[in-house]
Amino acid sequence: MRAYIQNFCRDEDGAVTVDWVVLTAAIVGMGVIVVTTVARGALDHSSGLNSHLANADVTTSY
Fold first, then answer.
1. Rounded Cα–Cα distance for residues 22 and 16 (Å)
2. pLDDT tens per residue across span 5-62
3. Based on C-alpha coordinates, what's the Rg of the chain?
4. CA distances (Å), 46 to each of 11, 35, 38, 52, in order?
5. Burial annotation 28-62 (CB, 10 A radius, 16+ → b, else e)
6. Cα separation of 56 and 50, whole Å?
7. Phi and psi at residue 50, in whole multiples of 5°?
8. First CA to last CA distance, the chain
9. Quick one: CA torsion of 49, 50, 55, 61, rounded to 10 degrees?
10. How many whole angstroms separate alpha carbon 11 and alpha carbon 13?
11. Dihedral over alpha carbons 41, 43, 48, 50 (to 10 degrees)
12. Is the sign of the CA dihedral 44, 48, 54, 58 positive or negative?
């Protein structure tokens, strides 16, 4: 039993897994921030374009 506990304490496989989970969570979090920022900018741009096109005069005859 003592050998099992010593082996368990020296095993670092779990630490590597925790590192990968933290790195993956950081990447996903940064992705969410980027998508939110880009989506907000695209929405603002499309609103401005919509108002510009709504106020434009369109000639239908030549």
1. 10
2. 888 778 777 777 888 999 999 999 999 999 999 998 888 888 888 888 888 888 888 7
3. 28
4. 54, 16, 12, 10
5. eeeeeeeeeeeeeeeeeeeeeeeeeeeeeeeeeee
6. 10
7. -60, -45
8. 94
9. 90
10. 6
11. 150
12. negative
Structure tokens at 56: 């434009």
The type of residue at 58 is: V
Task: Please provide the size of the chain in residues.
Answer: 62
Cα–Cα distance measured from residue 3 to residue 47, given in angstroms and rounded to the nearest whole number: 68
Retrieve residue 21's tokens. Answer: 């989970």
* Distance (Å, whole) CA 53 – CA 61: 19
Amino acid at 23: L
Does pTM surpass 0.85?
A: no
